[in-house]
Design a protein that fits this description.
single chain; mainly beta; Elongation Factor Tu (Ef-tu), domain 3; 2 domains; 6-stranded antiparallel β-barrel; 12 strands
Length: about 200
């Protein structure tokens, strides 16, 4: 389980493609590796992965074909930066909202506004997932818990403060970039329950 509060930015050192999976060697800030154990869960751009090995300041992860298909991890190459969060522990402050680290879909950045001391990112999601996106609702984008701004059809935006830009990879975002999306589980449950009762929300 994760909180959606990104703990820092890590660097992809190597992405080794093998039959059925890709092994990533990822370099982390040394201060974020305290008490890491083999088998621990770490979210990279919101995707829950399992630590398979540690070498100095690098952790190794295996991503299966299905994970690569459903997320943006298959696009990663050496030198790329990723948001990371280590799994939450009992007693940790939940500053964002609870996340599973299981990605539902991806979205594409279609517009970026950068007024002074602000940044607004506009996204487009597949039509089928628009039903779960509401103004002022929660969403996780590349593992960061964010509040949805405006929604129009299958497009929505989020407003980022300077601290979010400093602590994540969003400061380097470009139009056309793909991002991982995890829909808020409570929102999904409510929408699906209402749909089963005949109160379906149009997908458009």
């Amino acid at each position: 389980m994760f909180t959606g509060i990104v703990q820092g930015v890590a660097t992809i050192e190597e992405a080794l493609a093998q039959p059925g999976l890709t092994t990533f060697r990822v370099r982390f800030p040394a201060e974020n590796l305290d008490a890491v154990t083999i088998g621990a869960s770490v979210a990279l751009n919101g995707t829950c992965l399992t630590v398979t090995r540690q070498q100095d300041d690098c952790l190794f992860f295996d991503a299966m074909q299905e994970t690569l298909r459903l997320t943006t991890l298959g696009d990663l190459k050496p030198g790329d930066k990723v948001n990371f969060e280590r799994a939450a522990r009992i007693g940790d402050e939940i500053g964002g909202h609870l996340l599973s680290g299981h990605i539902h879909t991806t979205a594409t950045i279609v517009e970026i506004e950068r007024p002074e001391n602000n940044c607004t990112l506009h996204f487009e999601v597949p039509q089928a997932w628009a039903r779960y996106i509401f103004p002022k609702g929660y969403i996780a984008i590349n593992g960061a818990s964010l509040t949805i701004g405006d929604v129009l059809g299958n497009r929505f935006n989020v407003h980022l403060i300077p601290e979010t830009l400093r602590a994540t990879i969003f400061s380097a975002a470009r139009v056309g970039d793909r991002v991982n999306i995890e829909i808020d589980s409570q929102t999904q449950t409510i929408v699906d329950t209402l749909a089963r009762l005949g109160y379906d929300r149009p997908a458009g």
